[in-house]
Amino acid sequence: MRLLLLGGTDFAGRAVAEAARDRGWDVTVFHRGEHPAPRGVRVLRGDRTERGGLGALAAWDGGGGGVGGGDGGGVGGGEWDAVVDTWSGAPTVVRDTARLLADRVGRYAFVSSRSVYAWPAPAGLDEFGPLAEGDPDVEATDFAADKRGAELAVVRELGAERALLVRPGLILGPRENAGRLPWWLARISRGGDVPAPGPRDTPLQYVDARDLADWLLTALDKGLHGPYNLVSEPGHTTIGDLLDLCVRVTGSTARLHWTTPEAIEAAGVSPWTDLPMWAPPGTDFHAAIHAGDVTRALATGLRCRPAEETVADTWTWQRTVPEGELKTAEGLSAEAEERLLRP
Questions:
Q1: For residue 343, what pLDDT is reported?
Q2: Distance (Å, rounded) from C-alpha 82 to C-alpha 60?
Q3: Average pLDDT of the residues in 168-176
Q4: Among 46, 40, 43, 42, which Cα is nearest to 18's?
């Protein structure tokens, strides 16, 4: 399989690149050069947001060069069996890329988001519920509209039967660049009294980036098309189990103080931003983030590794990041912690 990956050097895109390489696929990565490309892939450079930024991709005919992270290289023809696109900005960027590649790729997989569903998204919503408004011909507006507009661009330029729309929710794992799990790991590793958002049995729904990559590549191999919610089953783990794992893998002496949603609201603390990954159970927010239907993904091969593996591997990676370079969510301030811990 000859794969073109747009991006592919940071977090989920990198997981796709490495998984495809490890399957023995011929992988070409087209990116801006902000992060080193994985070993064993072919690299083309370009910035899709700039005028002429697709030039290297348009001109590449598959000749010359080699594999290993250097520029250029190929095995003839300048065409690919599939392309994976992880773009999160203006739909026009995806539109222009899809238009350029329409006659040069077999299938186009766009990594979208469950944010494309119209708000509020009820618990148990599958892939065919109401969708947010989106336009493939506009510049960046907001995340949901941008992702939906990009989906529409891919479908319009390549046709529905060649478009795979991957809709993850919360993505965790090594190299996580939103820093939600890394924030909890870092905070808990420091020890002391840590406010923990309850109840302990509040279910979480997420996908490890490596499991996303494995499913996506298998889906391309099988010729799947259409939309797929790509997260674990609701309740794959709970906030209690996840934070307990953070304590265990870090070897911390931290003491978790479980706090009710009512007390969190009264303290002026925000779900998700102040308390990464958590949303109050029974709310529209929790239903939209942690209670989506994933029947289609499970039926087509999605397998989610245990939470313990995701947490432990993230901590192992996190400890290799030089001090000051780790990206973490903003999380709780010291003042907010104090308010939550106050008797």
A1: 79
A2: 16
A3: 98
A4: 40
Burial of 333 from C-beta contacts in 10 A (0-12 / 13-18 / 19+):
exposed
pLDDT tops 50 at residue 269: yes
338 closest CA partner among 276, 262, 286, 269: 269
Find out whether the peptide bond into 120 is cis, omega within 30 degrees of 0.
Answer: yes
Written as six digits, the tokens of 191 are 């020890």
Question: Both tokens of residue 123?
Answer: 């618990």
pLDDT class of 320 with cuts at 50, 70, 90: very high
Closest CA to 30 of 107, 112, 101: 101
Helices (H), the chain: 12-22, 55-59, 91-101, 143-158, 180-189, 209-222, 239-250, 261-266, 284-290, 295-299, 307-318, 334-341
**φ, ψ dihedrals at 250, nearest 5°:** -85, -15
Q: How far is 214 from 301, CA to CA, in rounded Å?
A: 9
Q: Are strands 163-167 and 226-229 parallel, antiparallel or unpaired?
A: parallel
From CA 289, how far away is CA 276, in angstroms rounded? 12
**Whole-Å CA distances, 296 to 11, 66, 293, 302:** 24, 38, 8, 9
What is the average pLDDT value for the chain, to the nearest integer? Answer: 94
pTM reported for the whole predicted model: 0.94
